[in-house]
Amino acid sequence: MMLIPTHHFRDIERKPEYLQPEKCVPPPHPGPVGTMWFIRDGCGIACAIVTWFLVLYAEFVVLFVMLIPSRDYVYSVINGIVFNLLAFLALASHCRAMLTDPGAVPKGNATKEFIESLQLKPGQVVYKCPKCCSIKPDRAHHCSVCKRCIRKMDHHCPWVNNCVGENNQKYFVLFTMYIALISLHALIMVGFHFLHCFEEDWTKCSSFSPPTTVILLILLCFEGLLFLIFTSVMFGTQVHSICTDETGIERLKRKHQPRERRASWKSVKETFGGDFSPNWFNPFSRPCDPEPLSDRDWVRQVASLSDMGNTETTEEQSEERKDEDSVEVIDE
After folding, report:
1. Tens-place pLDDT, residues 37-55
2. String of b and e for 229-258 (b: at least 16 CB within 10 Å)?
3. What is the distance between the alpha carbons of residues 231 and 319, in angstroms, rounded to a whole number?
4. InterPro entries of this UniProt entry (predicted)?
C-alpha cells in the first residue's frame, strides 16, 4: 500500500503515521434500533429551547389574547384547532429532527484489520477521516459539532441541535414548513384582530389592557414575519436540494466534484418515505430506511493513479491541511 495525493478538497497526508489506523479504537457495538440520538452542544441546546419558547409564546398570544376573548365562537374554535394542530406538528417535527441519528458513519472503523478485510484492488481507494477515525463512504462529510461523519450531510442546524442528513432531512423539511404555516396563520389572525379592535372598544377585544395587548400583538407580528421569511427560504432550499439530489455541501463543491445524480422524483420518494401519501406530512412516519453499508460502499474507484497525481500538493501544503481526509490505495 502507498499514500498518494488526490484532489485539493481531499489533500492527503504524506506521513502515513499521522492517521495511525492501527491505533484507532474499534467501533462500539451498534445500539438497538430506535436508540435516541442527542448532541450535547450548549449553543444548539440553547437554540432549541428558544425555538420551543417562541412557539409557546405564539400559542399564548393566539389563545389568550385573540381567540378566547373573541365573541365569535366558530371563528375561535376553527382557528384554535388549526393553529394548535400546526404547532403540534411543528414541535413534533423539531423533536424528530433533533433526536434522530442523521446518518452517522460508524466511529473508529478505520482500523488496520477492517481496511485489510476490504481487500482493495488496484485503482480502488478508501477515504479516512482523521478526526473521527472513520472510513468515509461516498457523500459523507465530517461535522465538527457532532464530531462524526454524516452521510449526505446538508448542514448543521443549531435550531434543531443536529446535522441535517440522510435520516432526518424529512423531519427538518416538515419543521420548516409547519413553522412557516403557523407564522403565516398568526400574522393573518393578528391583522384581523387589529381591525376588529379598531372597530370595537379595545377594552372589549382582549382580556388584557390595551397597551399590553398592543405590545403582545406587535411582538407576535415581528416574530411571525421573521420566522415566515427564514423558514420559507430554508424550506425552499431543502426542497431544491432534494429534487436535485445535491446537498448544500455538494453544491459548494460542485465544480470540483462532479457526480451522477438520481432522478428527482426518486430522491423525493426516498426522503419522504415511498410514494406520495399523507405520511409525507407526518413527522411520526419514518422515511425510507437507507440500505446498510456493504464493503463496496466503503471503497471508491479512481480512473487512474496518474490522474490523481496531477493534483499533487507540496509537503508544506500537506502539513497545513492535516485536518483533511487521508486516502489509501492499492498501487497497480
Report:
1. 999 999 999 999 999 999 9
2. eebbebbebbeebbeebbbebbeeeeeeee
3. 41
4. Palmitoyltrfase_DHHC, PFA4/ZDH16/20/ERF2-like
Q: Taking a C-beta distance cutoff of 8 angstroms, is the pair 202, 147 a contact?
A: no
Catalytic residues: 157
Record the pTM. Answer: 0.80
The residues near 255 (Cβ < 8 Å, ≥ 6 apart) are none
Unique residue bearing C-alpha cell 430506511? 289
Taking only the tens place, the pLDDT of each residue in 130-151 is: 888 888 888 889 999 999 999 9
Q: What are the φ/ψ torsions at residue 180 (nearest 5 degrees)?
A: -65, -40
Measured in residues, the chain has a length of 332
